Amino acid sequence: MTSQKRKLKSFLPFYLMMLPGVIYLFINNYMPMSGLVLAFKRYNVRDGIFGSPWVGLSNFTYLFQTKDAWIITRNTILYNIAFIILNTVCSIAVAVFLNDVVSKRCKKTYQTFILLPYIISMVVVAYLVNAFLAADTGFINNYILEPLGIAPVSFYSEPRYWPFILIFINLWKGVGYSCILYLANIGGIDPGFYEAASLDGATRWQRFTKITLPCLKPTIITLTILSIGKMFYSDFGLFYQVPMQSGALFNVTQTIDTYVFYGLMKNGNIGMSAAAGFYQSMVGFVLVLGTNAVIRKISRENAMF
Amino acid sequence: MVDNSKGYRILIHTVMILLCILSVAPFIMLISSSFTTETSLIADGYFFWPRQFSAEAYRFLLSDSSIFRAYGITIILTVVGTTLSVLVTTMIAYPLSMQELPGRGIFNFYVFFTMLFSGGLVPTYMMWTQIFHIKNTFAALLFPSLLTNGFTIMMMRTYFATNIPKEVLESARIDGAREGTVLFKIVIPMSRPIVATVGLMSGIAYWNDWNNNLYYITDANLNSIQGLLNRMLTNAQYLKQAATMGNVGTSSTPTTAIRMAVVVLGVLPILCAYPFFQNNFVKGMNLGAVKG
Residue A286 and residue B290: Cα distance in Å, rounded? Predict the structure, then answer.
């Protein structure tokens, strides 16, 4: 036996260990990539994924002729922009406040509570939201609008409120999580900076803008760029469950992910659905590569590859 | 911190307390409405405490076998899923953490690429249903997307690479330990924080999952508790329909309160366990944030 072979043989147990994971990723992640060809086919069950006839770009032509393509792209991107900005601002603000809480016990209690929404599923969130927004039994209509003498609002058929509602819910569920990331960073800032600044008479706001923010800058940039890389994807649960599939709201609640789902499962429009999915995968991939190139320019050690 | 004037201290505590209330209030409303009579829920609407107390909803659920079934499925799914997920993830992450593994670069890329590019829902759904025929099986709840992912593998790999001294592994090998023994008797016990974090993340993901139920399950007997919640959300009568088939439900069955009671049952275990695992969760999130 050559030494090369003996070496490989000694590693055999490790390759065997990796086998289940490698097979799983192959089935769950790599095989579907090959299924992207569906976007160029007219799918029928009898011929299957690879046997169905090719139709060239016609799925895409249909998709981009509809108003839907524009609406879902616009919604996905605009919601992502709103989420990125508001989540960053709010979680930094909460992290700064939380960091200034002196009592360890208070700090921990606060943290426990604001992280709570993060660990529950979006279906549960949809029920909680419904308790507030339902037309006749909802808390807002019964206990806020009625005492104020305002006519009840039927939220689930009024699109104009939903951008705010969805942005709010995304914040409510997500701030606890991103705030912890920032909190760890703020905790790592040398207290000497703050002491020196105070001695020089810096106000609290000056200390925030001149010390805290610059120290957080790398984290802010990295997290933001990572989110931009995911800009073509949306939280399916948020957009599918929370509006309770109300058709009246589709203009402001449909994103690429919900569109693909409805096409596949509800309307049986597999061609368009596959085309929208392909569009999402490709633009998403380009965005990830692009944002990573940007991170590499700004700070090499934060780049993914 | 340096000078926390009284005014500022009051300000931050006020803000934090308001945020805490904002986080918790919906849960209080949820629990209260599950303990309210149906008439009061319809007449008064949802409120923070029951206007008319009633445990009728829970009594109904006790008589309804579909809830127990769904609960059983969720529990089995969470236990089996979490165990498998931790095993598979550890077993692929550990070899990847070894500098000297031949072909390490290729395997790393193989894992990493899944984080950059994905086929999306349509092909994934087609593969699982047309090739593996998992529709309406327990496997449909267990396997698609939840078992492991590039992110967790990478996080664990980095942890192993930076926290386990090679000398420890070498000396075990010199003592004649097999590689499997080294992994289970040395590597995993030495990596409790990361194993706990991965287990926790995966446990929560399995407990909370309704997507696989939505995509792959039409058989009501395979509903997990979140799957049941998903069906009930837009079809308030879902449970009642299932119940009347077994002649349990009557026209006075409290539909709204029952739905809320099922929601309570769906989140209660996680809410109860949360204070105990919170520390580990927070630590793990920071581990995950430190990227490798």
Answer: 24
The domain segmentation of chain B, as residue ranges, is: 64-289
Alpha helices in A208-263 (DSSP H): 213-229, 236-240, 250-253, 256-261
Residues from chain A contacting residue B144 (CB–CB below 8 Å): 28
* ipTM of predicted complex: 0.91
pLDDT digits (tens, 9 = 90+) for B57-87: 999 888 888 889 999 999 999 999 999 999 9
Interface test with B, best of A6, A14, A171 (most B CBs within 10 A): A14
Domain map of chain A by residue range?
Answer: 38-302
CATH topology of domain A38-302: MetI-like fold (1.10.3720)
Taking an 8 Å cut-off on Cβ atoms, the answer to whether A36 and B120 are in contact is yes
What is the pTM assigned to this prediction? 0.92
Give which of B59, B45, B98 is closest to B256, Cα–Cα.
Answer: B45
Chain A residue whose CA is closest to B151: A304
The CATH class that applies to domain B64-289 reads: mainly alpha
CB-CB neighbors (< 8 A) of A106 in chain B: 13, 16
| Number of neighbours of residue A301 by Cβ within 10 angstroms | 9
Q: Encoding tokens for residue B57?
A: 């909803």
Nearest residue to B1 via CA among A49, A207, A26: A207
Q: Which two tokens stand for residue B287?
A: 């581990």
Tens digits of per-residue pLDDT, B8-53? 999 999 999 999 999 999 999 999 999 999 889 888 899 999 999 9
In angstroms, the CA A188 to CA A13 distance is 41
Cβ neighbours of residue A196 under 8 Å, at least 6 residues apart? none
